[in-house]
Amino acid sequence: MAAEVMEVKPQTSVPSSAATVLVDTVSPSGWAEAIAVAGGWNPLFSSEVWADYLMRWAGCRPRYVLVSAQDGTRLAAWLVFVADLAVFRRGWKRLACQPLQGLAREVVWFAPPVLYHPSQAEAVSRVLAEWLQRAAAPVPFVRVAGGPWLSGVATPLRIETWATYLVDCQGPEDELWRRLKHSARKSVRKAQERGLTVRRLQSRDEIPSYCRFAARAARASGRALVEPDLPMAWDCLRPQARLEFFVAELGGECVSGLGVRGQGAWISEVGSYQSVRDRAEQLGAQDLIKWEVIRWARSCGIRWFDLAGVNPEPATAKQAGIRQFKEKWGGCYVEFPRVRCQWLAPRRMRAAS
Predict the structure, then answer these.
(1) How remote is the C-alpha of 348 from its chain's centroid?
(2) In 3D, which of 97, 87, 92, 67 has the Cα closest to residue 4?
(3) Where is pLDDT greater, at 95 or 337?
(4) What percent of the chain has pLDDT over 90?
């Protein structure tokens, strides 16, 4: 597909009178350098490696978006995906989306736009919101599945506040240990005294058995696998990024597992799975895994371990429990805006303009 160019007059000033949004399905020259300036977010989710993985796993079509001022000054870079509505759904939800195939698409992203000039954040926000409304996909309806957004800016998109904990994994190990809350240290010691051990999967040959464990654990807890095709994730991500799986074992039995993925100085957790035994006997396996991930990250020179999000205003006991579990690892609490799921009608908006 040829690159799409759209000139948009922003509501706030930019270095010149207009901003140009250049969108393509292939990465432009220098994309890795363009996103290298990203601060405060896992760079994997803006990378070509991530785009290739989502294309191969789910058929998501990437959009490499560059925003430039009229004088050529680069303002922002952003990786967005356009997918069929059924891609990220399982079971009956996938079937429910079938009648809308061909009429609607879903737009999703995993990292906010990389911003080069903080003073232009609001201008970039408006320009990108207009691009989503007018040029996201050539279908009657677009569902914006949302993702993190630029902080402190106005936008016509619906925004909600979300949060995460970022654990700094660098420094002396005894200092990292002291940063943990007493409850975390107590649980880790208890798990060790019970004889639990943690190991990191070393080869692709171990992935099928881990997948079977994860599937059993997910069914037992009444939820779906976060990533149903872990072998493909292993093949796509490991050559150029970090993808690791940690398992806690007791007497040779796998009782808990956790994945992490990232690039550069960042990793984010993904796919936490507990066995029935781990929950019933309160083995503390997830606590031990978390501590071992922090130790491993420190040894690899990784600085930031993103614990993958919490609700800043827990609406249920489960959400409150998740936040309580994640806050005990000594991480920095960070709130950020994200776009809420919403429907747009880009063709109707184009016709009205």
Answers:
(1) 31
(2) 67
(3) 337
(4) 60
d(CA 79, CA 42): 13
Best CA proximity match to 162, nearest among 307, 8, 280, 19: 307
- DSSP state at residue 44: G
- CB distance 194 to 248 below 8 Å: no
Half-sphere exposure of 162 (CA within 13 A, CB side): 17
Q: What CA–CA distances, in Å, run from 232 to 170, 244, 250?
A: 31, 13, 28
Rounded to 5 degrees, what are φ and ψ at 87? -60, -45
| CA dist., res. 61 & res. 80, Å (int) | 8
Tokens 């996909």 belong to: 137
- Give the residue among 139, 135, 143 at the shortest CA–CA distance from 4: 135
Question: pLDDT band at 137, cuts 50/70/90?
Answer: low
Q: 316: which 2 tokens? A: 């249920």
User: Quick one: tokens of 138?
Assistant: 């050539």
Angle, in degrees to the nearest 10, between helices 230-237 and 48-58: 150
Averaged pLDDT of the chain: 87
Place of tokens 């949302």: 146
Q: Specify which residues 304 forms β-bridges with.
A: 168, 266
Residue in the structure block whose two tokens are 């943690």: 198
Report the predicted TM-score, pTM, of the whole model to 2 decimal places. 0.88
Work out the angle at residue 81's Cα, subtended by the Cα atoms of residues 78 and 262, and round it to the nearest 5 degrees. 70
pLDDT tens-digit series, residues 74-118: 899 999 998 887 777 767 677 777 777 777 888 999 999 999 888
pLDDT digits (tens, 9 = 90+) for 39-55: 778 999 999 999 999 99
AA letter at 240: Q
Paired residues of 268 in beta bridges: 261, 306
Q: How far apart are CA 114 and CA 111, in angstroms?
A: 8
